Amino acid sequence: MHIAVALLPVLLFLGLLVLLDSFKLVSLRSALTALLAGAAAAVLGAQLNPWLLDATGLSPALFSRYGAPPVEEALKASWLVFLSRRGRVGFLVDAAILGFGVGAGFALVENVEYLRALPEQALGLWLVRGLGTAILHGATTAIFAILAKRLGDRHPERRLLVLVPGYLAAVAIHSAYNHRLLPAVLSAGVLLVGLPLLVVWVFERSERRTRDWLGVGLDTDLEVVETIVSGQALESRVGQYLRSLKERFPGEVVADMLCLLRIQAELSIRAKGLLLAREAGLEPHVGDDVRDRLTELRYLERSIGRTGLLAMKPILRQDARALWQVYLLEEAGRAGGKAPGPRP
To answer: Is residue 217 part of a domain?
Structure first.
């Protein structure tokens, strides 16, 4: 009973989040990886916190309020920062799920250690640990991920500053919980009520934005492909810009740039179609044609080179959402067969 109360609630809540994700933005593999990343952060924190406690000279009570929260939230946030930089987070929903998954993994390791060290404690302790502290770790990391994603979408040029508000919010909530301002049972109750409300708001808002993005983005991608296939691309503003690059790049490189625009638009259409199918309860097969397109995309990126890709910045989508669409197709390809190699 102690083990179940200490460990199951946070896993059940994570499972609920995955089930609520109607677009299936987060695969089971990604959720499990987030759990493992959180567990690794907890192991590292268990080694780091005692050393910092001795180094700072703080009492255990003060360290739990002012020392542990900044350290633990930074350790948990590191995996989310890595995913974001790699284009693995597309919307607020997957940010929330992955963030909660990391926090859940951290909490599981922490509670297992408590169970090992305090096996004879009363059930009340494990209720607080399982329903309070464990949910706290998931909630604070989810809040960091949500705020970082939201601000990152609005201000993509401020790669570091967008992380600060979410990190400070996570540390503040963690520290306030460790201050024991409310009785332990009441604190756990506040988390159990407040977190579902936050999740409902995030999911509703994100799914509405996802549908808007799918509609507008699909029309734009179809227009790009139609323009290129019909041979009218060179008469468009994009074509005029590409012609201006002939003075700086060989003709074959400029031709590769046009091919890259077409393939990116085609893959974007496939990614959006995949999301629409998942919302309808289907899981379409991602076959060799998509994997071939992904391979060609990487070949063209290498052929054009970093300087060429920088020159294409005004006309080529290179933001986090574009990277995430490629990642989405790669994940679907792994589920359907042999996946393509790593991105260069």
So the answer is: no
